[in-house]
Amino acid sequence: MERTQALLNCLYHEAELLDEGRYREWLALLAEDVRYRVPVRVTKERGPEGGVSGVMEGMYHLDEDYTSLEMRVARLETGFAWAEDPPSRLRHFVTNVRIGEPRPTPKGEESEVRSNLLIFRSRWDRPDYTFLSAERRDVWRQEEGGWRLACRTVILDSATLPTHNLSFFF
Amino acid sequence: MAKVKTGVSPRLSRMLEELQEGIEDGLVPAWIFNDPELFELEKERIFSRSWVYLAHESEIPKPGDYVLRYVLNNPYILVRGEDGVVRALLDMCRHRGMRVCRAELGNASHFRCPFHGWTYRNDGRLIGVPAEREAFGQDFNKEEWGLVPIPRLEAFDGMIFGNLDPEAPSLEEWLGDIRWYLELVTKRSPQGLEVLGPPQRWVVHTDWKLALETFLSDSYHTLMTHRSLIELGIAPKDAKYAMYGEQIHIPGKGHGSMVVGAPPGAKLPPFWGYPEEMLERARTSYPTREQFETARETRILLVTLFPNFSFHNPIRKPDHKYQGAVPMLTFRVWHPLGPGRIEIFSWALVEKDAPEWFKEKTRHSYLRFFGSSGTFEQDDTEIWSHVAHNAATTQGRHLRFNYRMGLKLEPDPNWPGPGVAYGLNFTDANMRNFHRRYLEMLLS
Description:
heterodimer; A: alpha+beta; Nuclear Transport Factor 2, Chain: A; seven-stranded mixed β-sheet; 45% strand; B: alpha+beta; Rieske Iron-sulfur Protein; Naphthalene 1,2-dioxygenase Alpha Subunit, Chain A, domain 1; 2 domains; four-stranded antiparallel β-sheet; 13 helices; 24% strand
């Protein structure tokens, strides 16, 4: 139970950091060898066994490592990142959290954590907004100093994205 | 230039005359970037008779491979038949109009309509009609009821284009001299190009012409729009880096290119920074020596085809700490959805015979700087959407934009390629050429 609560706390804390644009603190939650991917999703017929359809392996919206995520954060800090200046008002809604069994690895104990995510995005003084819905398939690792995100694959629920750019994180 | 033709409302005629009068003086009225009536005319006179990019042949290499693509709101199944021939078939059952293809890509020997079960081979022929005799009798001729092919389908070096106008000129004639610049990419390797996966697709509230102009001609926006990447050391230190190049347009066609070299004093590797082995292959792969020599000195290359295709091929690296250069290539369709609304189709491509390590790295260079999450492109789409919004405001729509950059420049007589070239890339020459062609098509 303690582990479950600790991981839930991680997800909620992370959502707060992303909602509030505290990206340096967010980077501190990532493992140095993090893989962070958002595959392109396309419309496909139903497969014989059902399951998640149309998640492409060859192309992504984001395919990041720690250095490239740090670059994206550093860009926001330049004062010239117009896509997020003024910043989007973001709200990450995290639900349906499923936590797998712990497994030991040479780098520390790891847990698979799946969650559903709804991102609300509003910009400037317009009343309209966009929603992005997704499932996050994470691996969190217990390292010295706490849990770190070691791997995240974001299964988008859109084939064609309804927003003009992905200038934020899932 | 042609006078405004009948069939255009008095309101639109007046407005188009304003564009016509202003263009040679470098003035373009804001309203053309967001107007419902103009959009209807663009659908009819531009997109219903222009060659529109659909796909790269490497997306459908095997018999039965297909991808779904659009010209205006018409869905086409771009499919390679068992005979190896690529066709573009309207995704609409001839019986009652249901979509017969239920995926954006895949491989199929036939397409079966879920409504009443009419079934078509992947060459479009109707081969199955449930209860054919009982329902339609003896004299039903299936040959007359195949899927409707796009009126015209032609390809250039693996780039497949469609045209809704059966009377359109050939693709070769349509492209004209811009082929020399397309070949700088399509003939860089004897093996040609391949896509790295399917396109990213996303919607932007802007006008297709605004997006297009940026890739066609707007070297001037990089110093402010993309300042963040200069600060990070991703773009060259000299904020005017995109100025140091040639801007070339093809008169009468609307196409254009920007060929940018290294800023003075900047130490950038030649040939976009492609690996040495690719440079060696290019030496014999290019049709002419002039193309090879131009390519060798190029660091950033853009080509835009009238009306809504662009490619961008800049020197880049996968992140700000990477030592060395890894160029990237992206193909674009600025797909018009409505007034002030587009869908972007964005592909990454690479030479088929590029080393595997390079294919992986170039994908990263692409994803981190262009496409839906690209750190360059994020800021473009943000800005384009506000310009389109202002272009529809009651006061803003009457403003005339300044397209006067480089209006007094003289063409560069020493440029080795075809078209009209200017030796300074800070010019709106390609945009003015585009708008002349745009008007010509709208008015005829």
